[in-house]
Amino acid sequence: RMIAMPLAAIDARAQAMASAIGAASVIDGRSMVGGGSLPEESLPTCLVALDARRGFNATALAARLRERGVVARVEDGRVLLDPRTIAPDDDEAVVRACVT
């Protein structure tokens, strides 16, 4: 399901998450399909970017999110959340983890 998710649906979820988080933006990105027979394959996605320049310490925030069960990546001083890799039913919990 996650591989087949339309980009428009991912964008809508990313926009909603960024709006709910507040200090976040939506940027274009790539989702890695995975290992096995497709180790180098990726798909376009929309990422929720939490920017360290907006008061976040990216490393500390990523660690705090991991403690709350949210896996995010850190790139260029930003914590990036990929809605393609988050079950839609978990969006609200991810937002709560980011703001509390």
Task: Give me some keywords for this one.
single chain, 100 residues, alpha+beta, four-stranded antiparallel β-sheet, globular
- Biggest sheet, strands in spatial order? 1-2-4-3
Shape: globular
**End-to-end distance, in Å?**
29 Å
- Helix count equals 3
The count of β-strands is: 4
Helix percent reads 25-40%
The H-and-E topology, N to C, reads as HEEHEEH
**Biggest sheet, in brief?**
4 strands, antiparallel
What percent of residues are in strands?
25-35%
If you compute it from the alpha carbons, what radius of gyration comes out, rounded to the nearest whole angstrom? 13 Å
Helical/strand content category: alpha+beta
Walkthrough of the structure:
By secondary structure, the chain is of the alpha+beta class. Helix content is 34%, strand content 26%. The protein has a 4-stranded antiparallel sheet. Helix 1 runs parallel beside helix 3. It starts with 6 loop residues before the first helix and ends with a helix. The mean pLDDT is 88.
